[in-house]
Amino acid sequence: xxxxxxxxxxxxxxxxxxxxxxxxxxxxxxxxxxxxxxxxxxxxxxxxxxxxxxxxxxxxxxxxxxxxxxxxxxxxxxxxxxxxxxxxxxxxxxxxxxxxxxxxxxxxxxxxxxxxxxxxxxxxxxxxxxxxxxxxxxxxxxxxxxxxxxxxxxxxxxxxxxxxxxxxxxxxxxxxxxxxxxxxxxxxxxxxxxxxxxxxxxxxxxxxxxxxxxxxxxxxxxxxxxxxxxxxxxxxxxxxxxxxxxxxxxxxxxxxxxxxxxxxxxxxxxxxxxxxxxxxxxxxxxxxxxxxxxxxxxxxxxxxxxxxxxxxxxxxxxxxxxxxx
Length: 325
Ligand code: UT7
Fold this sequence. Notes:
- The protein is of the alpha/beta class.
- It has 2 domains: 3-174, Peroxisomal Thiolase, Chain A, domain 1 (3-Layer(aba) Sandwich), CATH 3.40.47; 182-324, Peroxisomal Thiolase, Chain A, domain 1 (3-Layer(aba) Sandwich), CATH 3.40.47.
- The chain has 10 helices and 13 strands.
- It has helices at 22-26, 33-40, 54-69, 93-101, 117-130, 154-157, 217-239, 256-266, 277-280, 287-297; strands at 3-14, 18-21, 44-47, 78-82, 107-111, 137-144, 162-174, 182-190, 198-200, 213-215, 248-251, 306-313, 317-324.
- The strands form 4 sheets. Strands 1-7-6-4-5 form a 5-stranded mixed beta sheet, sandwiched between helices.
- Strand 12 (306-313) and strand 13 (317-324) form a beta hairpin.
- Helix 7 runs parallel beside helix 8 (256-266).
- Bound molecules: oxa(dethia)-CoA.
- Residues 31, 35-36, 39-40, 115, 154-155, 158-159, 217-218, 220-221, 224, 254-255, 258, 282, 312-313 line the site of oxa(dethia)-CoA (UT7).
């Protein structure tokens, strides 16, 4: 029996031009390059220009993904944008991206799962493709977190950056084994009891203002290590493989120490982990597609390899996706 699977047929990324180093932040804030690098692994981050919107970042990444897939706007019937920093409260940033690209068929919507947003969006789009409801899907993670940072709070503002990454999903047939190409599994979780540990203190229904990001960093760190270990175990078990079978771990990039802990738990060595946090910082929903795009673009991830994606973010939300590339 053949089954339908979604294949990732193109990746694209976009980072705003302006790059801000830790030392530049230390000139205006009670922090040091040494503290930021040793606690997080971050060396620099990109910051969107005035007037540069989340949809602009998303559109640039999406164009590159379409080119890589050899498709045009006419081939796309689903646009999903994972973002916690939309252009406007409504309409969805995805509709602006759709208009920018000239996509006129199908549907477009945003997904809000903060740093897990890309894994949520990929899961939803994968279901559309498997059910035959999409023949060409753009899945985008795009953020302008610089707009919701309290630049006086050294505990949070040094951690995040702006950027976007995109992938194209298309249907393909296979026998349905772990050796066949495509998205093999997705697993999503949320536990709203922890919503106050990482949140934005504003919104249309509360303060009518966008608000600023607030985080109990140490608590989030502890939960991230536990939840991500569970997420990777779940993905291995669902596919009947162990850590040794994983060619690449492409984690959400929140903290180098969290990435290393998850890789250790999984049993993969650091040369099999795609790390961008040093250059991008935490770009929330954009971090995984940015990292994927880099590792596919420079030839590290190649056809037939087993790639494991995982993320954890505000809510809490967390999840994983296993892909045979
Ligand atoms: O993407 C969504 C998920 N997010 C995450 O996974 C983030 C998880 N959390 C983390 O990555 C880490 O907890 C942080 C990087 C946010 C903080 O690292 P930490 O090792 O947990 O530090 P801490 O918050 O316990 O702070 C240690 C000290 C404190 O000083 P005292 O109280 O020990 O005197 C902070 O005030 O470091 C101080 N501190 C800083 N010092 C210099 C906090 N931020 C800074 C800073 N520069 N930027």
